[in-house]
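Saturday, quiet lab. Running sequence design on the structure tokens for the scaffold JK sent over.
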């Protein structure tokens, strides 16, 4: 698709001309693309703002699904270190709960997963007293 056709030139100050609208849409699309690139979770996670450092925890979610009470209880309380750990930590065979991510404070993450040495934390265990997610 040619970027410019015929002899029409971008005319700033001519409102509503086809060329202006087209170039506006092109720049809007470019801006949206740039915004999407900046909101990739991994990039935000790597930012070094010490006050609001967040890490990703993985959880199972039954939101909007019809599930058994075992799934509901587990989904409400368990945090996993990875999507794979979440998939292996399901309540029962045949569980179809979705795996979702949740950004939690880095200090909470370290407490839940003991700095990365364990892969699952359950709020019902009352083990170490971790700050709420
Ligand atoms: Zn389930």
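Result came back. Writing it out in full:
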């Amino acid at each position: 698709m040619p970027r410019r056709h015929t002899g029409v030139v971008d005319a700033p100050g001519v409102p509503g001309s086809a060329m202006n609208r087209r170039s506006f849409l092109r720049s809007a699309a470019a801006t949206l693309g740039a915004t999407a690139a900046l909101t990739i979770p991994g990039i935000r996670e790597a930012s070094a703002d010490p006050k609001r450092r967040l890490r990703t925890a993985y959880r199972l979610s039954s939101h909007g699904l019809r599930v058994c009470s075992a799934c509901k209880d587990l989904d409400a309380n368990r945090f996993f270190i990875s999507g794979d750990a979440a998939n292996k930590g399901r309540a029962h065979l045949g569980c179809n709960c979705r795996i979702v991510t949740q950004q939690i404070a880095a200090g909470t993450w370290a407490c839940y997963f003991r700095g990365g040495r364990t892969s699952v934390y359950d709020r019902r265990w009352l083990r170490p007293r971790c700050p709420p997610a």
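Notes for JK: The pocket of zinc ion is lined by residues 62, 67, 71, 90-91, 95, 97 (CB under 6 Å). The longest helix spans residues 18-38. Ask whether to fix the surface positions before the next round.
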